[in-house]
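Appendix B. Raw example, untouched.
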Amino acid sequence: MRRALPLLLIVAFAGLMALGAQINVPMAPVPMTMQTFAVLLAGAVLGLWRGAASVLLYLAAAAAGLPILSDGASGLAPFSGPTAGYLFAFPIAAALVGAMFTCDALRGPLRKTGLMIAAHILILAIGAGWLATSIGLTDALAYGFTPFLIGMVVKSVLVVAAAAGLRSAFPA
C-alpha cells in the first residue's frame, strides 16, 4: 500500500482538478473555475514531479475524451481554443509550486501565499497571451486576466491553508 499511495494521490488530485473544473462561473471567452486551486494544491502537496504528473494525467484524460474540463468539454478542441494557454500553463505552475513550496526561503504563510499568487499570475499571463492571438491583447487582458485577480488571491490563501493540512497527512 505504501508504494501505491503516491500513484493514488496523483489520480486523486487529477480527480480534484476535474471536480474544480465543474465549479465555475460561466464567462466568455474563459470561465472562472476552481481548477487553478486544485492545480496549485497538487504541486504544493505532491511536489514537483508528482504534482506535474497529476496535472498531465488530468489533461491527458481530457484530451482522450473524458468530459472533465469546464462545462464538460473534452477532446483536442480545448487545447487549441481560448482556454488552451491556461491548460498548457497548469503543469508548469504545478511544477513551480512543487519545487518551491518547501524551500527555506518560503517559510511562513505570507511567503507561500506570494508563491501561489505568482503561480496564478503565470497561468493567467500564459493564458491571456494565448487568448490575445485570437482576440487581441486589450480584450485578452480585459476578459482573460483582470476578472480573475480577486479569485486568484482568495484561491491562493485557500491553497496555502489546505496544503498545510494535506502535507502533514500525506508527506511527499
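End of appendix B.
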